[in-house]
Task: structure prediction
Amino acid sequence: MKFYHLPVVENIHITKIVRLTSLFLHNNRFYYDGKIYRFIKGGPSNSGLIETLSNIYVNRMEKFLIDQSSMKQNEFYGRYHNQIFFTWNQSLDELQQI
Result:
């Protein structure tokens, strides 16, 4: 596994952080209407960890899209929490290459 900058955060090795995050994501359960369910994909949007992970993911995409010179040519970009909306004036092939 390759990580960006820090091998250790607050005296915790980055691989341990990744393992703990994975443990949380794969064992996330909730109680509803007398039954226990497991999130198959994603997690609760009001979870601090889920919000942080969403921000990391969306922020990387956001930075890339905004840095593209084409985003400055009559295009629109908007974001609300972990959702993004943008217009694209180039070809579908160019968008898929991103």
Notes: The mean pLDDT is 80. The beta strands are 8-9, 12-13, 29-32, 35-38, 77-80, 83-86. The first strand starts at residue 8 and ends at 9.
